[in-house]
Amino acid sequence: MLIFFCGTLIAFQAHSFAALLVGRLIQAVGVVLTLLQIMMLEIFPANQRGQAMGLAGIVVGLAPAISPTLAGYILDHGS
């Protein structure tokens, strides 16, 4: 929640679009990571939590690497 609050302060004091965008990105990281961990702890039993957290970490790590390539392919080959 502290990360989300810092993002809110940055977005509140933004004087440019870039500053606002940075604030909103920080807010997203604060909320998504916190909710992801809470959901993992609630959904999975204790003996499967490590595996679930590892898989979620892979997804979060790979998405920024794959999405620009995938978006470029879709834009080039889509109608």
Structure description:
This protein is mainly alpha-helical and about 80 residues long. It is built from 3 helices and no strands. Helix 1 (about 1-10) packs antiparallel against helix 2 (about 15-45) and helix 2 packs across helix 3 (about 50-75). About 0% of the residues are buried. The mean pLDDT is about 90.
Summarize the structure.
With 79 residues, the chain is mainly alpha-helical.
Helices and strands, with pairings:
Elements (H helix, E strand, L loop, with lengths): L1 H11 L4 H27 L5 H29 L2
Helix pairs in contact: 1-2, 2-3
Protein traits:
single chain, 79 residues, mainly alpha, 3 helices, 85% helix, 0% strand, flat
Number of strands: 0
Largest sheet: none
What Rg, in angstroms, do the CA atoms define? 17 Å
Strand content: under 5%
Give the overall shape, derived from the CA principal axes: flat
Series of H and E elements = HHH
Helix residue percentage: over 70%
